[in-house]
Design brief:
alpha+beta, eight-stranded mixed β-sheet, four-stranded antiparallel β-sheet, 27 strands, 26% helix, 22% strand
Length: 582
């Protein structure tokens, strides 16, 4: 889903309100990246030997000297400053007038909606004073503040987690959304045998979640008791009623969840938005007993890093962090019309936070996009960000067919444009070569041209034929896309991690090193997708599936029970902590 914040910039108000900008501190990024790649690489001396978040901050955050000097300089300049617990960045607060005077920059302000906010942003780059310059690596120059508190009823609706006793029907046995008309879809119908779910969900024609859990071998690893998945939400979360309806339909126990608000946010938007409902449905469907953390961020891409920071700083870490949103990489890091020093800084900070989540034992998964080989729906080639980041697992899409016993009959590259147009919800799995992100070490031997990061890494069911059943406002809808595939893989890997930790073993953590290792040494751990392509526009060359890695389906579809069976042992513990998980 392509996201952005509306509002017309105007001159900053004469009252000069107080705002906060985010300063990425000088930090040992080269060392952090090397440690991140080593901790996920089977055979490494540190494979799956994770640190606690305070240990990560001490080793790979800004040094004590940089932190202390930055606080002194900020205070001398008339600002208040606070170092984030990650040690990656600082929050610097002061009046608009002081920011403009000290940093020689013009700050604009405007009104945004859904929810109503005051939005502030710098026009151009800050000119850092000479004594601050050597301490700072990146600066995010945008700030949002909600200005309309929720009504009492809305607040109760947003904050109450409804009781969800199992009450199943008698019939019970990415931006990347792809909503379709469920009345009579023209393409392939559901295959296999519907299991566990209410009549309303079955009537959409979708797979049941239990069908795919079985086909992918997730059910053999358990229900995810003790597992936790964090979901990035752009000021949105599922409503309590939709959580309850989803649980009643599929027979889940009451959801254990918490919501982490972003800077300047007072409440998430609880209703009317589809993305969080789909994330919820896939996490609960693949890991029914797992808990969920809804981590909020603003829709402007330069602030998504705050959602990752909140997850890292929250105390009890999740097993997986899922991001179902995407923007064309060229519009964040390249030369798109909306690219700015702030968007590049925000992308750098998200990379830094994802690396540190990985060092603490959390794997991050992102949707590869729903517009095939095109630049997120624009008529030229490109890949989606943050899936283009080399520090997370990019998840593409497939179309799955099942036998009557819910075993896989076949799986091909997701491309629904044969049956429905893009304007009517048709999509194809995102994939291609990044132009602005480097190739990670485990992709170096794939024989691909250039040196850009290849997308995706793996793939999973994303087609709207038959799609997934998702409830929104009491209405059951059919949905698909890599917005579903990313939380599917994230949740399955969380189930695997929770099973390991019950046996007093370290979790999986970041998974790409493992996926590429297994593809080379134990190919049965992944279903190699060899048919289909992700063409979206006729004038943009498609990528085709083939044996081994390809830019349409990556390495293929993880076989989660096989991965559990073939999982290499962690490095000897020595004196290194095994996990950052509480």
């Amino acid at each position: 889903m392509l996201v952005g914040l509306g509002g017309i910039p105007v001159a900053a108000a004469a009252s000069s309100p107080r705002i906060t900008f985010f300063f990425g501190l000088q930090r040992p990024e080269v060392q952090a990246r090397a440690a991140f790649f080593a901790v996920q690489q089977p055979g490494s001396p540190t494979y799956r030997r994770f640190l606690t978040p305070p240990e990560v901050a001490a080793r790979y955050g800004a040094s004590p000297a940089v932190r202390a000097q930055f606080l002194r300089v900020a205070n001398q300049l008339g600002f208040s400053a606070q170092i984030d617990p990650s040690g990656v960045f600082a929050r610097v607060s002061g009046s608009v007038a002081r920011f403009e005077r000290v940093f020689k920059v013009h700050i604009t302000s405007g009104m945004g909606s859904d929810p109503p906010v005051d939005a502030y942003g710098a026009h151009g780059s800050l000119q850092l004073p000479s004594d601050m310059r050597p301490l700072v690596q990146d600066v995010v120059t945008s700030f949002l503040r909600q200005i309309k508190p929720p009504s009492a009823s809305a607040a109760a609706h947003a904050d109450t987690e409804a009781d969800t006793d199992a009450d199943t029907d008698a019939d019970t046995d990415t931006d990347t959304d792809t909503n379709v008309d469920t009345a009579d879809p023209p393409g392939p119908k559901r295959t296999g045998t519907w299991t566990r779910g209410c009549a309303q969900a079955k009537a959409t024609g979708a797979f049941s979640y239990a069908q795919v859990r079985h086909a992918y071998g997730i059910d053999r690893l358990g229900s995810g008791a003790g597992a936790s998945v964090a979901i990035l939400g752009l000021t949105e979360k599922p409503s309590a009623q939709d959580i309850a309806d989803n649980a009643r339909c599929f027979g889940y126990a009451k959801l254990k969840s918490n919501t982490l608000l972003s800077d300047g946010e007072t409440f998430p938007v609880p209703t009317g938005l589809f993305e969080p409902q789909e994330d919820l449905a896939l996490v609960r469907g693949m890991a029914p007993a797992a808990s969920i953390t809804f981590s909020q961020a603003w829709s402007g891409s330069d602030q998504w890093f705050l959602g990752a920071a909140n997850v890292l700083d929250a105390g009890h870490l999740p097993d997986s962090f899922s991001i179902s949103y995407g923007i064309c990489e060229n519009d964040v890091r390249g030369n798109g019309p909306d690219v700015s020093p702030s968007t590049r800084a925000g992308a750098n900070l998200l990379d830094s936070l994802v690396i540190r989540l990985g060092l603490a034992g959390v794997g991050t998964y992102a949707s590869a996009g729903d517009s095939g080989s095109s630049c997120n729906g624009l008529p030229y080639s490109g890949v989606a960000w943050p899936a283009s980041s080399p520090y997370l697992t990019a998840v593409g899409g497939t179309r799955l067919t099942l036998t009557p016993s819910n075993q896989r009959r076949d799986e091909v590259v997701w491309n629904d444009l044969r049956w429905t147009s893009a304007s009517n919800g048709g999509g194809a799995g995102g994939g291609g070569l990044a132009s602005h992100s480097p190739r990670p070490p485990f992709q170096q031997d794939l024989g691909l041209p250039g040196g850009g990061r290849a997308v995706p890494d793996v793939a999973a069911a994303a087609s709207s034929f038959p799609g997934w059943a998702v409830v929104l406002g009491g209405h059951w809808e059919l949905d698909g896309g890599t917005s579903a595939a990313a939380p599917l893989v994230a949740s399955a890997m969380a189930v695997l991690s929770s099973d390991l930790q019950r046996r007093h073993l370290p979790p999986i953590g970041p998974a790409d090193g493992l996926f590429y290792y297994l593809a080379a040494h134990s190919p049965s751990a992944l279903w190699d997708v060899v048919h289909g392509n992700n063409g979206f526009f006729r004038n943009v060359p498609a990528h085709y599936a083939r044996r081994g890695y390809d830019l349409a389906s990556g390495l293929g579809v993880p076989q989660f029970a096989q991965i559990a069976r073939l999982l290499p042992s962690p490095a000897p513990s020595g004196s290194t902590p095994t996990s950052g998980l509480g």
